[in-house]
Specification:
The complex is a heterodimer. By secondary structure, chain A is an alpha+beta fold. Chain A contains 18 helices and 15 strands. Helix content of chain A is about 40%, strand content about 15%. A five-stranded mixed beta sheet of chain A has the order 1-2-5-4-3, covered by helices on one side. In chain A, strand 3 and strand 4 form a beta hairpin. Chain A starts with 14 loop residues before the first helix and ends with a helix. In chain B, strands 1-2 form a two-stranded antiparallel sheet. Classes of the chains: A alpha+beta, B mainly alpha.
């Protein structure tokens, strides 16, 4: 299962111990707000990460942040542990300003593949020994690296169609004698859940090779956040990452990071409202995941899809009452939430309780129609298998990791909000297949309902004069220059992390989003190779990706 | 061509009589008018089923309302949809294999229409609605029904699209895997009747099986041999390609299978053909397992219509409730399960019939 650890490795790793472990690889120290940072030489990345993974239990490469300074390029590997999320360490790898080359971590963590491609694409750092260093979010013909400092925003991007890679070209030139068939699944295809292009090589009906091609929905979310002020302007953007009802969960990711960065307290009352709102969002997101997974397996707009949309609708109505919006909530503020529960409060509580009361019946119905349906079981059990070691190597989180038996949930492992004080469980299933991921989501809906119910109880009894929804937050927030932080929350799809480096102004110097879907989608080839096309489609459905979050 | 047991006069002859025509001319005119009428009735059913009934039924299963804006119960959507579909641009992809690309959408509905020629649809007033009653009627109707896969393969390969090609190939694999159990199961009925003639098969089922409290249960083969009925029902679902066996189309996997590239009139024809095949499947079921047009009080033709619509309803129910099996699982069920079961059923039926009779 997990990597073999020496006997003393499970103990808490102090910065000094990590420094000892890395030994002479370290050429400098940095202090990030969330973790100690160790500066290492660009050619010792593999060595350092391997030592940390094998000997100190840092088996989760959560994110790779790249950025350009006046005098250097820098990649930061945010490492943590699946067993103990509070263990964090940042490996900082500077690269030469003139010739930014750094060693690829792909050999140690498979997830580095896409993360480094993104860093190359947007910043311009080149990674040695990377198996496939191509652009990932932008088109192949893009000129320059848009998040680099020397990038000229005004230069025309001439990318005519004839110069652009023709997606059919590869196909046309295929060897006529070959026994495999190349097939483009997407960008327009009923099962891609957005604009995703999957380059597939088929042998008959079986998938020989499969490569997701992303970037169709890239909207420069990171850059937009870098050009917005901490206090008010950034908060609306997170709603647009995972736009499938998970808005509040995304907002929390930014809120948590920025609050820690600027040292802002959140009143307890506001934390409870946040927790309730976030769990409602998770339920809505999981309902949609169930419905679309059913759609992928059943292949039509069947009863299950409509039922799950119906139940999601009820959650949406509650969220609409709470936030005033149905899609782009923009409800959180740094230091709390924007307004209190809607008046009359009794009606809101009653509405939510009604929904929670009906929920077991609804879930029963899903179990009747889905999980106990033999055909569905034949289709999903033991298909799209993702062993836990592979899932860890790819940085899979959320229901995808928990469906592979990895007991990892940021809500419990690195507590925030009000989760610590509530009674709920982390759901895991050991099947590692599509069926397990489905089950995890269905059971998580129950857990979320438990949390919401407890929050409602607390809110109902909260004394009227202590309903403090926002702490006192200054109008402009200017964190100290060069303060760095990486914090994550448990989004609907997994660990949603934000890295912020402040540059002394009221706008972030670097804003990096760690999207759970981005890492989860990377596992698709592992799950699908050798399987049949319908199973590859089912696996894609069970990953529950949102392209808005993958591409940002 | 009159069979041994055939008692009633067929529709073409009746029409010829009414018109006062005799000989070859009478037979030709009668047959033409009869075919025109039967064909149009079936087309009208499809017209109601496709744009309206299917939506209404699915909506009822999935907690929705569906079309209700235009006309009573939204019925005029049929007109609106016809105009919409027929006025769309007919897009023919580059590199399409022209004659077969155009022929495929014609063959599918045509094959189903041919099948209705031999189905005994019961009487309506003085008319006995059956166009022809050849001695090999059952074999004929299966032959007509399976022409459909030719159309699907043609459409699939002529579209110059990989999804279409996969759909076409899946259609063949599926049809071969299920045609055999289908026919073998039907043979177990023939063991009872001793004849392939459809009117004979219907007549055989009109006897009373047993009586409960004065209500006599007819000897429909669905009651006589329920096992064969279930087998046939499943094989029939695969044969007409409905859930859980809608593998040749498989939206979300291979987009829309063989019909991916078809638009406008060609698309309508494919759609029409599929619904006609569902109705033909229902008609075959009704004829060999459900006593054909038999039923109390109402005229035979009305009962026949009720039965084929009931089958249509069943297909829509499955569509709303059942997941689709995978292609390899489908083939496995067909060859390893259905085939064995259908032969076992045939042998057992033959032994039982041999011992009793």
């Amino acid at each position: 299962m997990s990597v073999e650890l020496p006997a003393d490795a499970d103990a808490v790793q102090t910065p000094a111990e990590v420094a000892d472990l890395l030994g002479d690889l370290v050429i400098g120290r940095e202090e990030h707000l969330n973790a100690p940072g160790f500066v290492i030489k660009p050619n010792s990345v593999v060595d350092a990460l391997r030592r940390l993974r094998d000997q100190a239990g840092f088996d989760h490469l959560s994110c790779v942040t790249a950025q350009e300074y006046e005098d250097r390029y820098e990649s930061i590997y945010h490492l943590t542990s699946y067993d103990d999320r509070t263990q964090e360490v940042s490996i900082v790898v500077p690269a030469d300003k003139e010739n930014p080359v750094s060693q690829s971590a792909n050999e140690v963590f498979r997830t580095a593949d896409w993360h480094e491609r993104e860093a190359y694409d947007l910043i311009g750092i080149e990674y040695d020994d990377h198996p496939d260093l191509r652009r990932i979010l932008l088109p192949e013909t893009w000129q320059g690296h848009p998040l680099g400092q020397s990038y000229d925003q005004d230069q025309p991007q001439v990318v005519p169609l004839r110069e652009h890679q023709n997606p059919l070209l590869e196909d046309q030139t295929a060897d006529n004698d070959s026994e495999t068939m190349y097939l483009n699944i997407g960008p327009h295809h009923p099962a891609t859940h957005g604009v995703l292009h999957i380059k597939t090589v088929l042998d008959g009906e079986q998938v020989v090779d499969l490569e997701p091609d992303i970037g169709y929905l890239h909207r420069c979310e990171e850059q937009m956040c870098q050009n917005s002020t901490y206090r008010y302007q950034i908060m609306p953007y997170p709603d647009r990452w995972d736009y499938i009802s998970a808005g509040l969960l995304n907002e929390w990711a930014y809120a948590r990071t920025a609050e820690e960065l600027a040292d802002i307290e959140v009143p307890e009352y506001a934390q409870i409202i946040r927790t309730m709102g976030a769990e409602l969002c998770r339920m809505a997101a999981h309902f949609l995941a169930l419905g679309t997974f059913a759609l992928d397996i059943y292949g039509d707009f069947t009863a299950l899809f409509m039922y799950s949309i119906r139940d999601r609708e009820k959650v949406q109505n509650i969220l609409e009452e709470l936030t005033g919006q149905r899609l782009m909530f923009n409800y959180f503020r740094l230091g709390g939430v924007v307004w209190d529960l809607p008046e009359p409060r009794e009606d809101f509580f009653e509405m939510t309780r009604d929904f929670l009361e009906d929920l077991p019946t609804a879930l029963e119905e899903y179990h009747d129609m889905m999980t106990s349906n033999e055909i569905l079981q034949v289709r999903t059990v033991d298909t799209g298998v993702l062993p836990p070691e592979v899932a860890k190597s790819y940085g899979a989180t959320g229901p995808v990791a928990r469906g592979s038996g990895i007991d990892y949930d940021v809500r419990r492992d690195d507590p925030y909000g009000y989760y610590e004080n509530l009674d709920w469980d982390v759901v895991t299933e050991d099947g590692c297949d599509n069926f397990s991921r489905l089950l995890v989501r269905m059971r998580e809906v129950e857990e979320s309902a438990k949390i919401v119910e407890q929050c409602i109880d607390l809110l109902e009894d909260w004394p009227e004069d202590e309903r403090n929804i926002q702490s006192n937050v200054p109008r402009t927030i200017k964190p100290d220059d060069d303060t760095e932080i990486y914090k994550a929350v448990e989004g609907a799809k997994g660990e949603l992390g934000i890295y912020i480096r402040s540059d002394g102004t009221e706008e972030p110097g670097r804003f990096k989003i760690r999207s759970p879907c981005f890492s989860n989608l990377q596992t698709l080839p592992e799950m699908s190779n050798g399987e049949y096309v319908p199973d590859a489609i089912a696996s894609l459905g069970s990953l529950d990706i949102v392209l808005g979050e993958v591409d940002r | 061509m009159a069979g041994v047991l055939q008692g009633e006069v067929l529709l073409p002859e009746q029409i010829a009589d009414l018109l006062g025509l005799e000989g070859a001319l009478g037979a030709a005119v009668g047959a033409l008018i009869g075919a025109f009428v039967v064909g149009n009735v079936m087309l009208a059913f499809t017209g109601v089923a496709g744009p309206w009934a299917k939506r209404k039924i699915t909506a009822a299963f999935t907690d929705r309302i569906a079309v209700d804006r235009i006309g009573p119960f939204g019925l005029f959507i049929i007109v609106a949809d016809s105009v919409r579909l027929l006025s769309k641009e007919l897009i023919i992809p580059d590199g399409a294999d022209r004659p077969s690309y155009d022929l495929a959408p014609l063959i599918l509905p045509a094959s189903a229409m041919l099948g209705f020629a031999v189905i005994p649809m019961g009487s309506l007033g003085p008319l006995n609605i059956q166009l022809a009653d050849p001695e090999a009627g059952l074999a004929l109707v299966f032959a007509f029904a399976s022409i459909a896969s030719v159309s699907l393969v043609m459409g699939g390969y002529a579209s110059n699209n990989k999804y279409s090609l996969m759909g076409g190939l899946r259609a063949v694999a599926q049809n071969i895997a299920y045609e055999i159990p289908l026919v073998v199961t039907a043979m177990s009925v023939v063991v009872f009747t001793g004849s392939l003639q459809l009117s004979t098969i219907v007549a055989e089922q009109s006897t009373t099986l047993f009586s409960i409290a004065g209500v006599s249960i007819p000897a429909w083969f669905a009651f006589v041999n329920p096992f064969a009925f279930v087998l046939f029902l499943v094989a029939n679902m695969a044969e007409i390609g409905r859930n859980p066996f809608d593998i040749p189309e498989a939206p979300t996997e291979i987009v829309a299978g063989y019909q991916t590239e078809y638009s406008s009139v060609y698309f309508v024809l494919f759609y029409l053909g599929e619904f006609l095949h569902v109705f033909l499947g229902g008609a075959i079921m009704a004829t060999i397992f459900l006593g054909g047009p038999a039923g109390p009080v109402l005229p035979g033709f009305v009962w026949f219509v009720i039965k084929i619509w009931a089958f249509f309803l069943f297909t829509q129910w499955c569509r709303s409730a059942l997941p689709r099996v995978r292609i390899d699982q489908l083939i496995e069920i067909g060859w390893k399960g259905m085939l064995v079961l259908s032969f076992a059923n045939l042998v057992l039926t033959a032994i039982i019939v041999g011992v009793i009779a």
